[in-house]
Write a structure and sequence with these properties.
This protein is α/β, with parallel strands linked by helices. The chain is about 45% helix and about 20% strand. Bound molecules: ligand C2E and calcium ion (2 copies). Ligand C2E binds next to strand 14, helix 13, helix 14 and strand 18.
Length: about 600
């Protein structure tokens, strides 16, 4: 089978209707050459061809504009312009026009140059035949066609590559730039800021309670919410600022160069504007809030640091009650680096046996019985003694929290076994757990397994959980609490009075103990309102069969007031500080309060 390129001029002719006229444009200033070529072509095409001839380069454009030509036959040496540059210029202006160079100079180098500059063929006037000429014209057309197809294919693939590239830098859900895009564009902005000695702000924000929307309404609603939010944000953010979605409900705005940091205020106001009205999705109205963390270049001197610091500030904003915007500060930076170091050291604390457990006595006033609360201690070789308040919330986000609880169970069992050997009695041993642990569906099994492993009877265990932690997770906690209570474990609600002090939690969760936070207890003798509140809680709890314990008692005066009010249990430095295991064993004697 013949390929298109292997076809001959005869095939070329046959393939056309007998009435078909081939039309060529010839650029030739020599009338003798013009006549020669016309004659040859007439022979080759049986007279079925028409040749328009012009004698100047400048006439080509106009002639091409007024007619349609299969091939341009070009003499390179024209009176007004000569050289291969003619070819490249024509190629640029008429990219679809095949060009055959017909010249008097039979020079190989010029021929190659002509082809490089876009001609499809190069013929010498001195040795052409009609057949050779017609074949050359045919091949020129075919080559041009293939060239065009190749060009289109390349353009298509370049376009597809551009599309792929664009997709890889945009978030498919909202169409906003993604993290990759932010990194590229962000580094450029920072580079400019450095050169102009100016500032840049990075605003990091997310939707408060977005997880709850996903959990309650499903992911489709969550996605729609994100899309609507992205639309609103796009309206509020100027074109010169960069809005990106990092993933989930996390968004970032990186500003253009700022002269002063406070130029960011209008943007903050506009961002908050995006949350001013409810989002309407499938007939539901969702009112959303945001928390925004802000960090500035040059204080945070790379994009990574801007992101990290603004993210940190956003978490501070979430914890703050006064404002939903938080600016990253120097002291926050120090705190942040300490948090970072703690996180790093925590990873190896379990395997290095750096954790220990101490026990703080807890006295029940009606029968003078003694219980204890087990509290973890961390002695880090690098950081020294780290208070639990500084690391528990970090441990909570990793498996370390379970290592801690397991150790606390183990040490509590050791304490109980020591006391049993010495025939000393004790009420319950309180073990603190985090709500994030209870969220895990198998936590109960794990915890009961540890009790079994270390032979600690469930009836000797009280689980303490702070109200602050329970807030969004009351449902998760309830099922687990019920299961643990059925095993005989006592449940205490810790730090009551610091958070929402919700009565609903008291109603919905079956709890046995309420631990009043030190904040309500300390200096209570001088605070009539605290006294009134504590009396009210004690009265209410009595009717609900819940025992009330006062924590953080440091002064006799406080102890006296609390005894008068009638709290059930007392805990604090006045009674005893948290003690190492051996000291706790020694401390365990029948105790009476000397009030
Ligand atoms: P918490 O459960 O409220 O524990 C009582 C905290 O108050 C303990 O601090 C204790 O040392 C301190 N305290 C007791 N009496 C007094 C007093 O009279 N005055 C003052 N100023 N403080 C007193 P600690 O040991 O630093 O623990 C802090 C928090 O860390 C605990 O608060 C608890 O929420 C958490 N935590 C401690 N150990 C564990 C643990 O093993 N697991 C978990 N999940 N959390 C723990
Ligand atoms: Ca506690
Ligand atoms: Ca507490």
């Amino acid at each position: 089978m013949k390929t298109a390129l292997a076809a001959t001029a005869t095939d070329f002719e046959r393939s056309h209707e007998s009435t078909y006229q081939h039309v060529f444009l010839m650029v030739e200033d020599n009338p003798a050459d013009e006549a020669l070529v016309k004659e040859m072509l007439s022979q080759a095409f049986d007279g079925k061809c028409h040749i328009v001839c012009v004698d100047r380069f400048e006439k080509i454009t106009e002639t091409l504009a007024n007619g349609s030509f299969e091939v341009l036959i070009l003499d390179m040496d024209l009176p007004d312009r000569s050289g291969v540059v003619n070819i490249s210029e024509l190629g640029l202006r008429f990219p679809d026009l095949p060009i055959v160079v017909l010249t008097g100079q039979d020079n190989f180098d010029v021929a190659v140059e002509a082809l490089h500059n876009g001609a499809q063929d190069y013929l010498s006037k001195n040795d052409i035949t009609p057949d050779m000429l017609s074949r050359s014209l045919y091949y020129a057309r075919e080559r041009k066609l293939i060239e065009q197809q190749l060009r289109h294919a390349l353009e298509d693939s370049a376009y597809r590559n551009m599309q792929l590239e664009a997709q890889s830098k945009h978030d498919p859900l909202t169409g906003l730039p993604n993290r990759t895009y932010l990194h590229e564009a962000g580094n450029r902005v920072i580079f400019r800021a450095k050169r102009h000695k100016m500032s840049v702000a990075l605003l990091f924000f997310d939707l408060n309670g977005f997880k709850k929307v996903n959990d309650s309404y499903g992911h489709l609603v969550g996605d729609e919410l994100l899309k609507q939010l992205a639309n609103r944000l796009e309206q509020e953010v100027r074109d010169s600022d960069l809005l990106a979605r990092l993933g989930g409900d996390e968004f970032v705005v990186l500003t253009d160069l700022l002269h002063y940091d406070n130029e960011v205020y209008p943007l903050l106001t506009r961002l908050e504007q995006a949350f001013a009205s409810p989002f309407v999705i499938e007939g539901s109205q969702l009112m959303m809030r945001t928390s925004i963390g802000v960090a500035f270049y040059p204080e945070s001197d790379s994009l990574d640091l801007l992101l990290k610091n603004a993210d940190f500030a956003m978490y501070e904003a979430k914890n703050a009650t006064s404002s939903n915007v938080c600016f990253f500060t120097e002291s926050m930076a120090e705190q942040f680096s300490r948090v970072h170091r703690i996180e790093q050291c925590l990873g190896k604390a379990t395997s290095n046996a750096e954790f220990d457990v101490v026990f703080q006595p807890l006295l029940f006033t009606n029968n003078n019985s003694l219980s204890v609360e087990a509290l973890v201690r961390w002695h880090s070789p690098e950081l020294g003694s780290v208070p639990p308040d500084d690391f528990i919330n970090l441990a909570e986000r990793s498996p370390v929290i379970n290592d801690i609880t397991r150790l606390v169970v183990q040490k509590s069992a050791t304490l109980l076994h020591h006391l049993n050997t010495l025939k000393k009695s004790i009420g319950t041993i309180s073990i603190n757990v985090c709500a994030s642990q209870l969220e895990h569906p198998h936590f109960c099994d794990l915890f009961l397994h540890w009790l079994h492993e270390f032979r600690l009877p469930a009836t000797k265990v009280c689980l303490e959980l702070t109200e602050r932690q329970i807030i969004n997770k009351a449902d998760d906690c309830k099922d687990q609490f019920d299961r643990l209570r059925r095993e005989g474990i006592t449940i205490a609600l810790d730090d009551y009075g610091t958070g929402f002090s919700s009565l609903t939690h008291l109603l919905s969760l079956d709890i046995d103990l309420l631990k009043l936070d030190q904040f309500l207890i300390q200096q209570i003798d001088t605070q009539p309102r605290h006294q009134a509140l504590v009396s009210g809680i004690v009265e209410m709890a009595k009717h609900m069969n819940i025992k009330v314990i006062a924590e953080g008692i440091e002064r006799e005066e406080d102890l006296n007031v609390l005894t008068r009010i009638g709290v059930d249990g007392m805990q604090g430095f006045l009674i005893a500080k948290p003690l190492p295991l051996e000291d706790m064993v020694a401390f365990t004697q029948p105790h009476t309060l000397n009030v």
